[in-house]
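Worked example 3 (structure in, sequence out).
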């Protein structure tokens, strides 16, 4: 007997993973099922550490069960969207898994999101429920001016002093489940009313940082996210013994996956709200015996700038990961000295495809500027503007195929069509990343920059990343950013902004160093020393701000 695909009035599901009588244990196919399995295996173990508060797997899973039933009571149905505006905290983790168990997709936003971004995400996602803190009442009230949608607000920590516009109802966290946070709660009430889902259901909409224009919602199914997490777990070697320090925003795919991976393998995630106080983070490494430390290059630059960093104990670290562009060679060498026993991973990914490739171990020593080769279950090519593969050494756009690739942009079919190209067979799609790469003769990948960030000088395309790596090798340079500025002769001249950690470092030192190590075409024309580089909300260098200020 066969059944038609798509919606049916009484859908029939196969849920073999939850059949305990089966002779073969199958992996869960839904994200929240992984949490439930870890709660069965590691009930009393710490799942989350948030400041002085510790959440066992039993407590976390029970709270998720209660919240999922409460969300259904609030009117959340399968395929709805639930927006979470709480930042890095245990309640965010409860909310995202609770939304999933209620059959909805979660949308995570930074806790300090402004009203304009919040309004856009609420409207674009068509959110049914928003979870926020009382202190965000003013921002939320501004965002909801003239609101006409069906939205319910859940206040996680009391009532705000600012009222919401007419037509927007609210309820307190305590009213949803007064016993939340207790290890003894069963969390089972109402669970028989929860929808049955499949792995093709939407699990999350992750909005881009939107340095220009409106943020785009990246759609990820349960299958996408589990496939990506499994590949990452495989090459990093995550297990229940890991303690992962997560200061990256949970609204950022890189930060979110630290929690997902931790819950899948039964590890402990240590959540920190901010990177503003690096000494607090370094102390947490010692206090919690942290084994995994994910960061971005800008975080590494800030940490390595600390005068007393050698005084901290990094002996428990098993690995350090860096995503985005490759770590500058100078930063990589210093990290090795600080934690010689830790494996360092250079990685690359993007919101549309959380992770693509990695490099670690002896290969990283041999090719420190590379981000490696594709991770398990992922395929890449580098192509020219006509879609033809380029030769090693040539710069082209990276395209990606795999189960870790997004489904498309929410509410934006034309944008989705613009980044996908059909592959070798009907079901095959290649994601065009918008990032330029090259390979060496052995197939190792080297990030060159975003399409929009590439510098066009003397008719040639120049990678800002290669320039920045060379500048950062110079002793005293903390961080650097290369941009193109208008030039009547060159088209664009290269200007490099340098964060100086040495009092006697001058622009001529930078230029002499670059002239010795770079092709003439790539040597900067201008150097400007700055106290700090502007950053996006996700910790990346904001090149557009640099260009705008110097355009």
């Amino acid at each position: 007997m066969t059944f038609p695909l798509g919606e049916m009035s009484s859908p029939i599901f196969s849920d073999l993973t939850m059949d305990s009588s089966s002779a073969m244990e199958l992996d869960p196919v839904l994200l929240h099922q992984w949490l439930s399995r870890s709660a069965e295996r590691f009930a009393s173990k710490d799942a989350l550490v948030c400041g002085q508060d510790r959440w066992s797997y039993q407590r976390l899973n029970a709270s998720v069960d209660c919240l999922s039933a409460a969300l259904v009571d609030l009117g959340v149905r399968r395929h709805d969207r639930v927006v979470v505006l709480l930042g890095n905290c245990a309640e965010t983790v409860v909310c995202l898994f609770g939304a999933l168990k209620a059959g909805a997709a979660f949308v995570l936003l930074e806790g300090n999101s402004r009203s304009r971004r919040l309004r856009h995400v609420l409207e674009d996602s068509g959110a049914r429920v928003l979870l926020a803190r009382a202190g965000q009442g003013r921002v939320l009230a501004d965002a909801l001016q003239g609101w006409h949608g069906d939205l319910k607000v859940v206040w996680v920590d009391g009532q705000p002093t600012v009222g919401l516009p007419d037509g927007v109802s609210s309820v307190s966290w305590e009213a949803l489940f007064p016993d939340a946070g207790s290890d003894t709660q069963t969390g089972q009430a109402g669970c028989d009313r929860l929808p049955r889902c499949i792995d093709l259901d939407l699990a999350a909409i992750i909005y881009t940082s939107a340095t220009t224009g409106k943020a785009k919602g990246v759609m990820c199914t349960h299958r996408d996210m589990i496939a990506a997490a499994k590949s990452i777990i495989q090459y990093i070697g995550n297990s229940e013994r890991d303690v992962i320090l997560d200061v990256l925003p949970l609204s950022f795919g890189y930060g979110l996956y630290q929690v997902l991976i931790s819950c899948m393998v039964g590890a402990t995630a240590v959540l920190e709200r901010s990177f503003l106080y690096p000494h607090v983070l370094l102390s947490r490494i010692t206090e919690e015996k942290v084994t995994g430390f994910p960061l971005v290059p800008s975080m590494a630059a800030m940490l390595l700038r600390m005068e007393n960093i050698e005084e901290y104990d990094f002996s428990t670290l098993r690995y350090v990961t860096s995503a985005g562009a490759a770590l500058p060679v100078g930063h990589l060498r210093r990290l090795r000295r600080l934690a010689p026993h830790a494996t360092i991973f250079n990685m690359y990914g993007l919101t549309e495809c959380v992770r693509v490739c990695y490099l670690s171990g002896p290969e990283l020593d041999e090719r420190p500027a590379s981000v490696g080769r594709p991770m398990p279950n992922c395929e890449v090519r580098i192509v020219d503007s006509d879609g033809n593969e380029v030769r090693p050494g040539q710069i082209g756009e990276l395209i990606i195929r795999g189960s870790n690739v997004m489904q498309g942009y929410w509410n934006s079919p034309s944008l989705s069509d613009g980044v996908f190209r059909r592959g070798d067979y009907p079901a095959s799609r290649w994601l065009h990343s918008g990032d330029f790469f090259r390979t060496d003769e052995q197939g190792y990948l080297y990030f060159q920059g975003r399409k929009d960030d590439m510098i066009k000088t003397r008719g040639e395309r120049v990678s800002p990343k290669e320039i920045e790596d060379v500048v950062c090798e110079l002793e005293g340079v903390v961080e650097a950013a290369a941009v193109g500025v208008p030039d009547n002769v060159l088209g664009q001249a290269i200007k490099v902004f340098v964060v100086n950690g040495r009092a006697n470092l001058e622009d001529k030192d930078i230029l002499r160093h670059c002239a010795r190590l770079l092709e003439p075409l790539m040597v900067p024309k201008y150097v400007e020393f700055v106290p700090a580089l502007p950053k996006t909300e996700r910790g990346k260098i904001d090149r557009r701000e640099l260009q705008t200020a110097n355009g």
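Notes: Residues 1-23, 180-187 have pLDDT under 50 and may be disordered. The longest helix spans residues 57-73.
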